[in-house]
Amino acid sequence: MIELIVIDVDGTLTDGKIYYSSEGEEIKAFNIKDGLMIKSWNTLGKKSAIITGRVSNMVEKRARELNITYVAQGVKDKAKKLEEICKRENIPLKNVAVIGDDLNDFSMMKVAARTFAPFDANPYIYDYVSDPLTKKGGEGAVAEMIDILLKEENLYDKFLELWVK
User: Fold this and answer.
1) CATH of the domain at 93
2) Which of 27, 47, 81, 136 is the Cys-Cys partner for 19 at CB 3.0 to 4.6 Å?
3) Residue-number span of the structural domain to which 75 is assigned
4) Whole-number Å distance between alpha carbons of 4 and 137
5) Using one digit for the tens of pLDDT, what is the confidence trace for 49-106?
């Protein structure tokens, strides 16, 4: 049973592009479908984490909106951070699913039980991916992962009850 999902940001939760305003402010676009599924996952009593190598105020803001349990930015060793979160929550790595898209996600993909990657991920990480997805990063890949997990864990009816009343 998956208790914790871990999400990379750039190229997974976003399309991997970094935009800057004329004032130099970083701008990221987040997919609303990903947001609905993450929020639903959390509402169903599951845990979520963002582990990303970059630092962005926009990521912090989006994570608060979605009630993401843990946000770790500027992380160099993603596996170590994942293991710290699991220890704190007393969640075994066999109950963790990770979604990432690039080489800096290797370390946490090697230790997690379930691994997902967007359709447009770096091809080298597919050696560590149990579930390649059909959606691209920033275009619903995270929603697709959560949809798969909800169905596998017989939580889809409870998920629907959150929204269809």
Assistant:
1) 3.40.50.1000
2) 27
3) 9-160
4) 20
5) 999 999 999 999 999 999 999 999 999 999 999 999 999 999 999 999 999 999 999 9
Amino acid at 87: K
Closest CA to 15 of 119, 157, 126, 92: 119
Among 153, 144, 150, 152, smallest CA distance to 162 is for 150
Closest to 140 in 3D by CA, of 164, 119, 109, 111: 119
**Coil vs helix vs strand at 154:** coil
User: pTM value?
Assistant: 0.95
Q: How many separate domains does the chain show?
A: 1
CA angle 57, 59, 62 (to 5 degrees): 110
What's the CA angle centered on 93, arms 88 and 95, to 5 degrees?
100
Token pair 């930015």 is at which residue? Answer: 73
- Six-digit token pair at 44? 């169903």
